[in-house]
Amino acid sequence: MKNKTPRQHTMLAVLTFGGGTALLFVLTFVHINQGDVSIPVSLVVEALTNPQDILAHHTVRILRMPRAVMGILAGGALAVSGVVLQTVTKNPLASASTLGIHSGTYFAVVAGTVFLPAALSGNSLFTAFLGGLGTFLVVYMLSGGRKATPVRMVLAGMIVTLLCSSMTNVLQIFYEQETAGLFLWGSGTLVQNDWSGVQFAVPFVAVSLGIVLIMSSQLDTLKLGDDVAAGLGQNVHLVKFISVVAAVMLTSVMVSVVGPIGFVGLIAPHIIKRLGYRKHFSITTASFIWGGNVLLAADIAARVIDPSFSELPVGAISALIGAPWLIWLVLRMQQGRAGEQNSSVMAGRPTRELPLTVLLPVLTGLIIIMGFISLASGNYGFEPIAFFQAVSGSSNEFMKNLIIDFRLSRALLSFLAGMILAASGLVFQGVLRNPLADPSVIGITSGGGDGALTAMYVFGGTGIWVPAGAMAGAILFFCIVMLLAVRAGFQPATLALLGIGVSAFGSAVIQILVVQADVTVTSALTWLSGTTYAKGWSEITAYLIWPLLFVIPFLLLRIRVLDTLALGDDTAAGLGLKVTRTRFQMALAAAVLAAFSVAAVGSIGFIGLIAPHAARLLIGPSHQKLLPVSILIGGLLLLAADTLSRTLLAPNEIPSGAVVAIIGAPYFLWLMRRKR
Q1: Phi and psi (nearest 5°) for 491?
Q2: Domain residues for 303?
Q3: Rounded Cα gap, residues 53 and 28, in angstroms
């Protein structure tokens, strides 16, 4: 709090601590008063000070008060965890959600529930702690350790989050009964039936918070830099280790009780730092207070939006608040900063440029081989000759239905959807000069999901409404991303980070829609997982044939403009290209492709990232060559993923989107590692 008079210091302290505490009391009373039955403030005070054996007092003391206290504890703990992580990593964007700690703890708890239920015996804290700590270490090392930049670290956190989420989804699908009680908890909820959750959490929160407060002066020194801190006699590694353990413990204990609730650890510390506080003791204390305020306000908002018994998860509301906050922080950091934006380095260079006359036949052959493998894989196998007999009509009715109606239609659907996603990713990468661009990474897929789910909720998911909704949602999010791209100067890694915020906002809307659409929850969740299960000719004719007939030919005619855009806006304009119009037209075409893909197979990510990069390694940077190679690789990848999804754990089936994510996430991390 530099350059402030003593009176201003006093006023700011009163506002921050006194005002924050007063607001906490007000929100607590409002929170307790929410419910099917309104309870006057006087009765709340009486229930707390002079409890009697009446229903209203029991409701306040046993149901509503524990929930409010848990909101304060969880918000405060997550905020303090964010303070510590931001200091240790020197990353203003760090929090348990952006670094993947939430997803790691959640996956660890789900895996422990499935495989070690006796060991957990109702206490998942130790498992959550190990999962959170392991995830943090993975993200920290893969992003470059001490040399990691904020953008790179959060990008690594995003990919680890996607990987953990995919593995969690697989476990929840295969072990539905064992994990049945974890769905609402996995979205973040403060619902408490008694004081047991609070009693469990308080000791761990108190000890961890005490450690952070005791080490506040050490964190002040650490903020000066590792070399300076070491020069002042600090054991930097020990301070970091203790601080990270305390931060992960704060997160883990809250996740084990209320589930993963994101962005509180990002919002609250920045509120305090924006007020001018610099000492960690003050930042930590104030962040705890305001973290409680943020989470209580989010929970109040969740019950105002949906006051029914099936209320909205508070994790979704906190993401609705936190995602725009993350976008604002990224844009603010981008001003005057250009670090790590050289797209040519990250785009991948050809190890050996192969001629199209060789590469296209090889890819076509691989696709044919994979197609036959896909057709023959399953509980009922057959010889290749059976396929030709079924096509010619000389086979029996059973084989004809099996091959043509079930397996061929699904294989063709996977191949076409992969082609469309690869083309969309290639165009986005060229338009935004961003080798990390992909419909899922930059939020377009989430927009399509929001639009399609809205259509399912409003119109019942019949007729043309689902693809129309997906189209509208994808284009809306496309417009948002393009506006952010202009603000970010089309910088590669920064734009991908902005996409995280857009995707988080879209995912929060999806959670809300799923909770609201009680009748269609099962179909919505199946669709959102990104799957080709039980899909075929109807999806091909309704969703995929149109982009193949109209959008792909348009791209084939216009693809050379991406080579011109790669030279830079000034050079492209000097060559006579209308840069803004061209960029918008090509990006709109890519968004339309993504929208149709989402409508057909749900939210399948990473195809649009992997296929263009693999193509560049094989064919070089020319987009005229990249487009046919990319779409063939994309089709091959999703066809292979669909085959694996059906056969790896047969007769159970893994969603194709999860298989792609499990393959694509390590590739993305390798790409970042290669860029170091």
Answers
A1: -80, 135
A2: 6-337
A3: 23
Contacts of 631 (CB under 8 A, 6+ apart): 419, 420, 422, 423, 552, 611
94 dihedral zone (left: phi>0; alpha: psi -120 to 50; beta): beta
* Matching residue, tokens 């080490």: 215
Identify the domain boundary among 337, 365, 398. Answer: 337
Category of 620 on φ-ψ map: left (φ > 0), alpha (ψ -120 to 50) or beta: left
Those residues whose C-beta lies under 8 Å from the C-beta of residue 335, and which sit 6 or more positions away, are: none
- Residue burial 177-211, b: 16+ Cβ < 10 Å; e: rest: eebeebeebbbbbbbbeeeebbebbeebbeebbeb
142: burial class by Cβ within 10 Å (0-12, 13-18, 19+)? buried
Of the candidates 297, 328, 280, the residue with the CA atom closest to the CA atom of residue 26: 297
419 plus 514 within the same structural domain: yes
Q: Return d(Cα 627, Cα 631) in angstroms, integer.
A: 6
Confidence of residue 523 (pLDDT cuts 50, 70, 90): low
- For 159-218, what is each residue's pLDDT tens digit? 888 888 878 877 877 777 777 667 667 778 888 888 888 999 999 999 999 999 999 999
Give Cα separations from 45 to 19, 37, 71, 220 (angstroms).
Answer: 21, 16, 19, 41
Structure confidence by residue, pLDDT tens digits, 217-251: 999 999 888 889 889 888 988 999 999 999 999 99
Peptide bond between residue 467 and the one before it cis (omega within 30 degrees of 0): no
Residue 469 counted as domain residue: yes
Please state the three-class secondary structure of 413-434 as a single string.
HHHHHHHHHHHHHHHHHHHCCC
Does the pLDDT at position 51 exceed 50?
Answer: yes
Total domains present in the chain: 2
